[in-house]
Amino acid sequence: MKKKTFICAFMVVCLSIVAYGTTAYFTNEDTVTNVITTGDVKIELQEWAIPEEGGELVPFKDATDVMPGMEVSKIVQIKNTGGQAAWVRISLEKFITLAEGVIGEVDLSLVSYDLNTDYWTEKDGYYYYNAVLNPSEITEPLFSKVIFAKTMSNMYQNSKAVIDVSAQATQVTNNGETVFEAAGWPKINEEGLENEKTK
Fold this sequence. Notes:
Elements: E1 12-18, E2 35-38, E3 41-49, E4 58-59, E5 71-80, E6 86-97, E7 111-113, E8 120-123, E9 126-129, E10 143-148, E11 160-171, E12 188-189, E13 192-193
Parallel strand pairs: 1-11
Antiparallel strand pairs: 2-3, 3-4, 3-5, 5-10, 6-9, 6-11, 7-10, 8-9, 12-13
């Protein structure tokens, strides 16, 4: 396979992770892929993309043969699929794995997002949705594209970029006037989220 200078092959992988809410507010739990369920609070992490040829949104799929300076369409939203209003938040984590045999210090800032700061606010490592998410509503996108810097060097050729997305929800009723006052978010232990992750 021919390799061209300054061309990087990236795979943008979204590991859609959905954590439970808290049993401090509810007693029933049930979880399936990409859905959080706690009592009647349910959210679904949705990821869409705009096709290169345009048209309606399609489910996001891994992107390959991405070159420096390119932008990959990736629209991240949360839908409230339950019967109660919810506060929601998302955490993002980036990883870049260099190709086998390549040694160097990875610069994660070379992969970025067009974060929507009008509707989402960053605090303590999470992006909080500023409004109540009522049943059947969908948030405004947290971001709509992943951007690969033009300055990426040959070191990143055939490497893999991974975006780890985690969505959480907790009830609105009797739980603070704003998302920042809400309680009941999943707790973090030394090994990460105490709850099961789905991919």
